[in-house]
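User: Quick sanity check before I run a bigger batch. Here is a single chain. Can you write out its predicted 3D structure?
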Amino acid sequence: MAGDQLAISFDGSSPQVKGAINSTLSFVKSATYLAVRCVLESDVPNNSGVYRCIDVDAPKGTVLNPNFPAPVAARALTGYRVADTVLGALAGIVPERVVAAGEGGNSVVCLGGYDKATGEPFIVVDMINGALGARATRDGIDAITNPTQNMSNMPIEIMEATYPLRIEEYSLREDSCGAGRTRGGLSVVRQYRLLADEAILQLRTDRYHTAPYGLFGGNGGALSRNYLIRDGRSELLASKVTREVGRNDVIRHEQAGGGGYGNPYDRPFGAILGDVLDGKISLSYAREHFGVVLAGNAIDEAGTSALRKSRQIAQA
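Assistant: Done. Predicted structure follows.
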């Protein structure tokens, strides 16, 4: 950074890959501009004059600027990581303006096949939006679109009326938030039962191994998970999947949660109790991540003090 110019280098990025997660340079620039724009004053316009002040360098032949021909259909997954990376770097410059990492971008659950009852083909592309990370002074927002997108979750009534599916669960995911002085947003769970005889399932999800980061002592959000439930048995799937599924198979996606901001032990007891009573976090989560013991619908202050003291001794 020098004067009114900002230089952002992605030198050291991995080489391009055979899969479709390579990002185009245009997407990398767009994600970078968005991250920078998020920390600027609200009266700064979105125009080419602003973008000329931001120099983006992504080496040719890398996953962020691949040589032609290269598959890029799933470039958004990599582009979302670009935005997270730039925002994480900016947290060291303007910490009060940067939000901890969100769910990692929308998850995509695709099912396609033929409805034998009608003879009609169907393709459902469900783009699921999850959670924002915690802010310096406020909790992350639950079940909302990531800043890198501009969309909303499909209502289950429309999905069930249009496709041979039954949505068996659409809910906030308990304990998915990252703990902190302000906690991350809760993500969502979607569970689908296939009512057609067969279909092709394709999953494009992320944040399976590396959690959305917390900031300044905040914990990371929960990892995402995919499951196939068949004949009462649950199988953990990979983050990216293409496979056949059949009638009454159940597909469950648990999206990653938002990261926390600040030391979890600085969170007010009232806020922790409120989240427990609202069913957003469990008693065990409150104990493990906030060091808080509850007795009924109240904080056990003596038990909480003893627990925290024992942890300090163990860490000494």
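Residues 1-98 form one domain.

User: Great, the batch can go ahead then.
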